[in-house]
Design brief:
single chain, 141 residues, mainly alpha, 3-stranded antiparallel β-sheet, 4 helices, 50% helix
Length: 141
């Protein structure tokens, strides 16, 4: 987006990967991040996505969100953005830094975050207690 805003002339750019991904695939990956595996049952408007462990329905197909003229294949062409802006759909900061971080390091990251926060809080608590003890000693004299 920043590169589009820095462009000399206002123009339209398609920011896309050039790959086809379904809503179903997006839903499955999103739930996988939180540790839920989705299984699909039914067809068309009666299709539901259930938690494979609890069998609780988490996703329902709603016809009101269908496109009026549904097409079979939607793939964005980022050629103009790639050539004029030197944009790389595989190396966007969001995709590389955020998604790879979540999908590769999800459990280890959470553990490291808690350890880091614990150490951080412990050090600051120690510093504050040290300062309070110094103040008490100074006032006692």
């Amino acid at each position: 987006m920043w590169r589009i805003l820095q462009h000399d002339q206002p123009e339209d750019f398609v920011l896309a990967t050039g790959e086809k991904h379904s809503v179903r695939e997006f839903v499955e990956k999103a739930f996988k991040v939180v540790g839920v595996e989705i299984t699909w049952e039914g067809k068309a408007e009666n299709e539901v996505g259930k938690d494979s462990k609890t069998q609780k329905v988490l996703v329902r197909v709603d016809p009101k969100y269908y496109r009026p003229a549904e097409v079979e294949l939607l793939i964005g062409d980022p050629t103009k953005a790639q050539t004029e802006l030197k944009w790389d759909p595989k190396q966007t900061p969001f995709a590389v830094k955020f998604y790879s971080f979540l999908f590769i390091y999800d459990n280890d990251f959470i553990i490291c975050l808690f350890v880091y926060l614990f150490i951080y809080l412990f050090i600051y608590l120690f510093i504050y207690l040290f300062i309070i003890i110094i103040i008490i000693i100074f006032l006692a004299q």
